[in-house]
């Protein structure tokens, strides 16, 4: 089978990283795969550079980027994929508009990696999204919560939606010695500095925690709200206890050396960094948003906190700090879960089977 993946840009974000990993597994299984990135990006992606093709789109013109729509049509005409998979961001917009303008016939699989309702803020936005979903043949939602959210908002997507979670390259994960000072608890967070990741709330949580326990917060990632977060750290005089690392090529090196992984996001689909932490034997404390409750069960595979309950978030971190028996139980259960359900070998096969649904439906829009 020939598969063409679309990603937003070359960036170390969950949607792009997983797409590259999925593509590599599909290649390993004998399929022919290319990855097209819409916009400029300079991150080193976890896949061979020869598989990556720039579309040279312009984000400021994404609603009328006719040159890029035409370029995508040319790539599809030359590569002749059996299916086109749009992986979050603007990829569905570009694939649908290119298809409508240039009449290519390949079915579109959309990977729904978040909670759509959080981004629908007006009737017009809902109408526009409904239009794009109409031209998908199949939709792979990253979690049951993401699927139900999409289906409730757009009932017409229900018959063509299936839950296919993200997975991990388990065989490629190496455990590295701790990078951190071992006389303190090292709290790890990985994520882009965007409003969804709630760094402002994270700093408030850490400020409370630091008043009770000797800890250090390690922030891996970059993004538009980083400067604002740094200013918040300075305002609270936390500079000696918070380290900003920016983008890193291998976040696992930073995750695996930590003591506790925290994710107080206010919007998530099913974040891969949680799976990575769990596989690396790092206990996770996270808000109950999106599909997180599908992998974190309270005191079984992690600590699950009601959204915006910062006091309980702090208390849960302290409980894990002071209870090694509970930590050991949680990390053992969590790793077993990842090995059983979130291995990319299995996930890749699920996607291939799902593609055949689109092909067997004679490319009709469901």
UniProtKB/TrEMBL annotation:
InterPro entries in the cross-refs: Glyco_trans_1, Glyco_trans_4-like_N
Pfam families for this protein: Glyco_transf_4 (PF13439), Glycos_transf_1 (PF00534)
Gene3D superfamilies: Glycogen Phosphorylase B
Segments forming domain Glycosyl transferase family: 180-335
Domain Glycosyltransferase subfamily 4-like N-terminal: 14-171
GO MF annotation: an example: glycosyltransferase activity
The name this protein goes by in its record: Glycosyltransferase
Source species of the chain: Mangrovivirga cuniculi
